[in-house]
Amino acid sequence: MIMEILTAILVVVTAVYAFLTYKMSQMSERSVQVMKEQTEAMSRPYLVFQPVVRPHTPLLYLKIYNSGNTPAVGVKLSIDQDFYQYDELGKNLKSLSIFDDKIDSLSPNQEMFFALGEGWKVFGDSKNPMPQQFTITASYSFMNKTVEEKNHIDLRPFAFSEGERNPIVEELEIIRRAFEKFTKSK
């Protein structure tokens, strides 16, 4: 009788031990998965699409860059609307090679700037489409994975903002105007 009780206790202890071992192996697998995801997140490319105001000017630009640590390979970009740079018919962003062709590789920290136009044209009465909101879709590969991301660009917050002003440039502008007046009066 004692032998059967001890055997039953041993079976229960073994079952608890097996259950705990199973749970530990599941937690280990999850830890490994989390570490893989963290490693990928730290080393992957991240394409950033950002509207910026060019310093000391009223010009808006679209900045595209890879803020990640590895190259984005086979980059294909598309823009959902026509956007005529500087309000000129012959300068549609959609027809630029960056939105028309595939880019072999976009290296880490590589930056590109595309002029959109003067603020008063983008936010004023333009003759051609200069939307204040548009979407850029990017698809690219890294480490045998392919991603597709949609990036919403909203220029509206820039409508009444001012770019940084350089007092030296402002003073030089005053001197230039005075010089032009002086030379015209002679």
Q: Which ranges are low-confidence, i.e. pLDDT below 50, for 5 or more consecutive residues? A: none
Distance between the termini: 126 Å
Rg of Cα set: 30 Å
Strand-pairing-aware structural class: alpha+beta
Portion in strands: 25-35%
Could you tell me the number of beta strands?
7
* Mean pLDDT over all positions: 88
Bulk shape:
elongated
How is the main sheet built?
A: 4 strands, antiparallel
Question: Strand-and-helix sequence, N→C?
Answer: HEEEHEEHEEH
- Tell me the number of helical segments per DSSP (H or I, 4 or more residues long): 4
Helix content: 25-40%
Main sheet: strand order: 4-3-6-7
Give the helix/strand layout.
Layout: H1 2-43, E1 47-53, E2 59-66, E3 72-79, H2 97-100, E4 103-106, E5 111-118, H3 119-122, E6 133-142, E7 145-154, H4 167-185
Antiparallel strand pairs: 1-2, 2-5, 3-4, 3-6, 6-7
3D architecture notes:
The chain is of the alpha+beta class. The chain contains four helices and seven strands, in the order αβββαββαββα. The chain is elongated. The mean pLDDT is 88. Helices cover 37% and strands 30% of the residues. Strands 4-3-6-7 form a four-stranded antiparallel beta sheet. A three-stranded antiparallel beta sheet has the order 1-2-5. A hairpin with a 5-residue loop joins strand 1 (47-53) and strand 2 (59-66). The relative contact order is 0.15.
